[in-house]
Design a protein that fits this description.
about 170 residues; mainly alpha; Growth Hormone, Chain: A; 8 helices; MFS_sugar_transport-like; Sugar_transporter_CS
Length: about 170
């Protein structure tokens, strides 16, 4: 039951590479949040072992498809002082999420835990709508003005820092 998740993760990871360049870093994360929600709902409504397995496969694919874009977007968007902590922290927070699901499993039935599992992906999808695309990806797409605006937003309006960074773009 648990290993089927890991079988689908590499497939999602391979798909994410193509998506990174085609739909952007933010778009890739938005794409992966949708099957993550769907997988949890499939498991929450499951009435049979095959349904649970399908939900686990969908979750595994989604986790694989979000691992690479999450690292790339953090590397491209984070302030250099926070970049190491944030990129290093992704695995720690992934493990914390697993721990939270296990703790919820000790308190609630598996289908209730599955519905709780859908909360963070929904919140992530909303948050991803509110943030700009990666300035690096925008520059690669020849959208320098949008990249500058995104960078300005990411740097909290610090125009001096944006000018310094833009000199190297």
């Amino acid at each position: 039951m648990t290993s089927v998740h890991s079988l689908a993760t590499p497939i999602g990871s391979l798909v994410s590479g193509a998506l990174l360049d085609e739909i952007g870093r933010r778009g890739s994360l938005q794409f992966s949040a949708v099957p993550l929600c769907i997988g949890w709902f499939i498991m929450g409504f499951a009435k049979s072992i095959p349904s649970l397995l399908i939900g686990r496969v969908v979750l595994g694919f989604s986790v694989g498809s979000m691992a690479v874009p999450a690292q790339v977007i953090l590397g491209e968007m984070a302030d250099p002082k926070l970049r190491g902590f944030l990129t290093g922290g992704t695995l720690a927070f992934y493990c914390l999420g697993i721990l939270i699901i296990y703790a919820l499993g000790a308190c609630f039935t598996w289908n209730i835990v599955a519905f709780y599992g859908s909360i963070l992906p929904v919140l992530a999808l909303i948050a991803l709508i509110l943030i700009p695309e990666s300035p690096v990806w925008l520059v690669k797409r020849k959208k320098s003005d949008k990249a500058r605006k995104a960078l300005l937003w990411l740097r909290g309006g610090n125009m001096q820092q944006v000018r310094t960074i833009c000199m190297y773009m």
